[in-house]
Amino acid sequence: MKNVELETIVSLCKRRGFIYQGSEVYGGLSGTWDYGPLGVSLKRNIINLWWKMFVDARQDMYGVDAAILMNSQVWKASGHVDTFTDPLVECSNCHGRFREDKIDTNKCPTCGKASPFGPARQFNMMFKTNVGPVDDESSISYLRPETAQGIFTNFKNVVDCFYPDMPFGIAQVGKAFRNEISPRDFIFRSREFEQMEIEYFVHPDKWEEAFENWRQLVWQWVEALGLPKESVHELEVPETDRAHYSKRTIDFEFDFPIGRDELLGLAYRTDFDLSNIQNSSGKNMEYRPKDDSPSYVPHVIEPSFGLERAVMAVLCSAYQEDEVNGEKRSYLKLPYHLAPVRVAVSPLLKNKPELIDKAREVYEMLKTEFGNVMWDDNGNIGKRYRRQDEIGTPYCVVVDFETIEGDTTDTVTVRHRDTTKQERVSISDLKNYLAK
Ligand code: GAP
Questions:
Q1: Who lines ligand 1 at CB under 6 A?
Q2: Ligand 1 centroid to 192 CA: how many Å?
């Protein structure tokens, strides 16, 4: 992975309207981030790509969108109430609280006091809340710490409505919340984030085959995001580090500027969740095959994709620096299908009404066709190119004097982000040209 500082990405994201600190106007709220116009567009493009690849393009997938608030029984049965914890230590001097496994416990990272920590206590990471006007034990609920449980609890609904053949999967994209002890590293570890998860249900004898298949599909996803293969690494997670529900996990790690760390996970969750739901709800979670062979509780392969980590990996790997006409330039070499703005349209000069009128016409045509098209007449043309490069816009279309007079009327300049090369394209061909 080339050397890009996290600070460079954070600053670009803020300056150009991708990502802001959450509640910034009030001094922020730790572990929360707000997406600006470009960030939301990038995020949507990633979600849409994921949905297209793993739901729409397949015949064995069903989408759901479950409520974030769920009956607290869900989190008891899933093991989250008892085991979804991180080890918390507190400094005896400054009372700073830290995740024990993320610091050197010989010294407090805040005040520097030597050996300040007693034994760790287990801190549950779920956000607790009360549902309804009564504030007692019976109304306790939690903001979901994973989207997965909204899939498991709808397993029977989907089977009863669609009666799918085995194997099949249920997919969901949505928010998850974790009261992380130390949110850090920009959007990498936040308290509110989004997951794109699949629970893929299989016959218990078929889990290894399905696991291997999903391992390959994860690599296809890595490629679709435009991440260099050599920056992504599989880590076979040892039993002692695996989540309580998993019999096998591979973490796909990415070389982030903060070091190599988890991008997404692939886990074999056995029948842990469906069997627990069956036991605690009393409802039958067995799948009855159409050929009358014996019923069984399906086993599950779970590819779990963190959206923010995908955003961060895409931004870090897209960031490039080079020199154009003797000047340093930075740009985002985003895959075209992920770029928040596909095309920027400009009049060469902003004080020539005839250029502006024609440019507006071109802009409206492209905007109707593609949607994510930006009007940009700020500053001189060189500055506009730099700005569009920095947000990863693949094409700048410029309406200049040749567009409105001379032999090449009705052609525009199309300038390419990666090469900075320019060519003339006729307005009538423009939509086809840019759709390629
Ligand atoms: N349902 C399985 C599950 O939630 P996980 O490994 O805890 O597994 C899956 O989370 C993915 O969610 C991670 O690989 C990561 O991409 C993302 N993720 C987890 N915690 C996160 C956090 N605090 N901030 C941002 N993303 C997070």
A1: 146, 148, 178, 180, 189-190, 193, 195, 197, 262, 264-265, 302, 304, 306, 308-309
A2: 10
| Tens of pLDDT, residues 20-75 | 999 999 999 999 999 999 999 999 999 999 999 999 999 999 999 999 999 999 99
**Do 154 and 275 sit in the same domain of this protein?**
yes
Q: Which atom of ligand 1 is nearest to the CA of 148?
A: 1
Domain coverage including residue 365:
341-435
Looking at the structure, tell me whether residues 181 and 251 fall in a common domain. Answer: yes
In terms of domains, do 280 and 392 share one?
no
Pocket test for ligand 1, best of 262, 273, 302 (most atoms within 8 A of CB): 262
> Cα(375)–Cα(379) distance, rounded to whole angstroms?
13
Q: Are residues 255 and 348 in the same domain?
A: no
pLDDT digits (tens, 9 = 90+) for 135-191: 888 899 999 999 999 999 999 999 999 999 999 999 999 999 999 998 989 999 999
Domain boundary among 281, 316, 351: 316
In a domain, residue 60? The reply is yes
CA–CA gap between residue 156 and residue 428 (Å, rounded) = 53
**Could you write out the DSSP letters of every residue in 317-342?**
HHEEEEEETTEEEEEE---TTT-S-S
Judge contact between 396 and 386, C-beta under 8 A: no
Distance CA 297, CA 286 (A): 4
Residues 158, 153: Cα–Cα separation, whole Å: 10
